[in-house]
Design brief:
globular
């Protein structure tokens, strides 16, 4: 079931109420049952792959600690490396077969064709298990954390299975690390009114972002991207700017609902977004966008490769490998790879040109502490990010090429003649979409210095409840659902 479904609005209150009603010692059992039911509601057969990854990584954790008891250090180290290799190979092998096998087979055929070699490689019609990239990364982090001795192996297999399958985070994160989250399943969570209220408020804000803003923007975005050759200039530019805010509101809303749902039951989750479109560089953007994935790649790929503790050339190579892996993680298609590589190129180029930029600033006497300079940095970073989003959203690399070639066309009359309203959104919905984008920007600015939930809690009771009621009514009136609209799944659930 999806967070924006009626089923979830029934499922979650029941889970939370029973959770607080039963003894602490059996709560993990209830949450495990609820999480498996939540996942099985999509397709019960997909549970096989999640359970397999759970058993493999749980067993590897136990074996790693057993091997530590061997008196011969060299033998112990070799065996530990072998166990980690088998665990990673098995989990990544499952991920590869279901997500990447056809992609690599197709590109291998292209290579053989280019070399004039005839080769018959079959194409497999496999159903991609939903959320597989997310729970695989969670499971892999557990094995690596034990290998590094950051945590002890969890002896209770049920609690570890709950860590892998915890339903708020299961389908699209946040990607919690075992050393930060696993121990919370052994903590006693006492019902606390303020904690539950703040969790529900975060969930409500998530529904506002998803149903009012993201799904409305999606209508115009889908119109243009589903038929790229039919549109020109500002039609494409508008769709691309709308997509930048659609994917932010869509994924941020999922993260907020997930974090809020976990908070209702007393769990502390990692923040996944921090006003990313106010970043002043690509490097800063990736510290603010999908924070848990960026952190995962940094801890488990970038640092093991050498990070920045090496030559500049090697460091740039490490950055490109990480962004190439990030592109592939998002999807087995060339346009996702290009998206990842572009971000790597942006970051490496920024690092290379940094000394030149500082020299120009010094020569021209440019003041870097003023608002205008920071605004230019933010706008330039957003333009780079927004351009890269074309490859992310396009249905294929060929579609991305069409969109980019058609984008350089000057047709501002679409705004004065009203033809912009032929892209799926009439005047009313277009204005609501613009207001939603403005609201997101304003709220993001406020959140840079203050927690709005804390500020709201300081207000009078009547005012607070007025805000709650208005938010719910706004979702009911302006939400995109019902007849005439297709239900919009969360974008990151496809990964």
């Amino acid at each position: 079931m999806s967070f924006n479904s009626i089923n979830f609005l029934i499922f979650f209150p029941i889970v939370a109420l029973i959770y607080y009603s039963i003894p602490h010692r059996v709560r993990w059992v209830w949450l495990l049952m609820a999480s498996y039911y939540f996942y099985a509601s999509w397709n019960p057969r997909l549970l096989i792959f999640m359970v397999t990854a759970t058993i493999i990584t749980y067993s590897s954790g136990i074996l790693l600690e057993k091997v530590d008891e061997i008196s011969d250090p060299k033998k112990s180290i070799l065996l530990k490396k072998f166990i980690v290799f088998v665990s990673l190979a098995a989990c990544l092998g499952i991920l590869f077969v279901f997500k990447y096998l056809n992609f690599f087979s197709m590109n291998l055929l292209r290579l053989f064709s280019w070399l004039n070699i005839t080769m018959n490689i079959p194409h497999y019609d496999l159903l991609l298990p939903i959320g597989i990239s997310f729970y695989t990364f969670k499971a892999l982090s557990y094995t690596i954390d034990i290998y590094r001795k950051d945590i002890k192996a969890e002896r209770n297999m049920g609690k570890y299975a709950l860590f892998v399958s915890f339903f708020p985070q299961l389908l699209a994160g946040p990607i919690e690390k075992s050393k930060d989250f696993l121990k919370q399943f052994s903590e006693k969570h006492i019902f606390d009114y303020d904690t539950v209220k703040n969790g529900l408020l975060l969930m409500l804000w998530g529904f506002v972002q998803k149903l009012i803003i993201a799904d409305r923007l999606a209508i115009l975005v889908n119109t243009v991207y589903d038929n790229p050759s039919a549109y020109r200039g500002f039609e494409i530019i508008t769709a691309n700017i709308f997509f930048a805010f659609q994917i932010y509101c869509d994924f941020s809303s999922y993260s907020d609902i997930a974090i809020g749902a976990a908070q209702v039951m007393g769990f502390r989750s990692t923040k996944n977004f921090e006003q990313p479109y106010f970043s002043k560089s690509i490097q800063e953007f990736w510290r603010r966008w999908h924070i848990t994935l960026s952190s995962w790649f940094k801890d488990y790929l970038y640092f093991p490769l050498g990070g920045n503790r090496c030559s500049k050339l090697r460091n740039y190579s490490n950055i490109m490998v990480v962004f190439l892996a990030s592109g592939l993680w998002h999807g087995a298609a060339l346009h996702y790879v290009i998206w990842g590589v572009l971000h790597g190129i942006f970051q490496v180029t920024g690092s290379i040109l940094k000394p030149l930029k500082h020299r120009i600033i010094k020569i021209l006497g440019i003041r870097t502490e003023v608002f205008s300079y920071k605004l230019i940095q933010v706008l330039f970073t957003f333009i780079l990010v927004d351009f890269a989003w074309i490859f992310f959203r396009a249905g294929s690399f060929a579609d991305a090429e069409i969109l980019i070639s058609n984008m350089y066309y000057f047709n501002p009359e679409i705004f004065t003649e009203g033809t912009i309203y032929n892209l799926g959104l009439d005047f009313k919905d277009f204005m609501v979409a613009l207001f939603g984008i403005g609201a997101i920007l304003v709220i993001n600015i406020w959140q840079r210095n203050k927690d709005l939930r804390v500020q709201l809690a300081k207000q009078n009771t009547v005012f607070r409840w007025a805000v709650y009621v208005i938010a719910v009514i706004t979702v009911l009136i302006f939400g995109i659902y019902g007849s005439g609209f297709d239900a919009q799944e969360f974008i990151y659930m496809q990964f």
